[in-house]
Amino acid sequence: MSRTNNTAIRYGLILWILLAGGMPTAQARHNNHHAAAVSDPSGVDLRSSTALVIDQTTQQVVFSKNPDPVHPIASITKLMTALVVLESGQDLDEQITVTEEDVDNLRFTRSNLRVGAHASRLDFLRMALIASENRAASGLGRSYPGGIRAFVERMNAEAARLGMTNTHFEDASGLNGNNVSTAHDLAILVQTAIQYPRIHEITTTASVSIPVGFRGRSVIFHNTNPLVANSGWAIGLSKTGFINESGQCLVMQATINGHPMVIVLLDSRGRYARIGDANRVRKWLEAHNQVTVGQL
Fold first, then answer.
1. pTM for the whole structure
2. Under CATH, which number does the domain 39-295 receive?
3. Residue 246 annotated as catalytic
4. Catalytically annotated residue among 48, 64, 65, 78
5. What's the pLDDT at 288?
């Protein structure tokens, strides 16, 4: 049989397999994956690939979607940064100065915090947690006794102490894509962090003015989660995160129908997807009154 005939038969068989549905096309595989990521028999239709909601009072999982994978967590990292600073008892009034070491040379993200600016450690916490300022988080780690390496070691030790067995940190800001965790581990982090009044106060502040501009001019830092300024939400803690590897992330503690809820949303795709998902989860919880357990 000629090479031409062999080729014709081979392509004919491939065409028959495709028409019979035995070998899905690349587009079909993509569609199937997407459907699996957002399919929701409860009708929530989340854009986040991972979601977890825990009733903080009972510790019952009242809603979950694909909660087990390990994800890059981006600036959710800054919650652990704040925990380490507060637990170490460092002087919150001590002045920290931004240096070239704090400049992001990995992703080249913009910053409203100029090199040479100085403020108290408490203000660095505010900038890191409210506006997710990477230079502020870096400065907090760098000014720790032993420097950034000792700080990150303390972060990982704290994660291990809390039982966050699938969590690992490599920097204080979350710019490093190797900062990873799971929804369950982040629920532990949120429930630990909410016990610190400073973290509650700071992360639920809509904006703050700090004199770190040129010649001491005030710079306004806005919260990266607009829901904290929404009177319809009763939020006790909030932190957002984003790098390309992580997608849009959001963790919150919020009271819904009189129940304190821990909400973890990871790997949302779309600029406002995590906020939309938070609102969808809230509506679902209000409609079900936390009785039905949603497992996706």
1. 0.84
2. 3.40.710.10
3. no
4. 78
5. 79
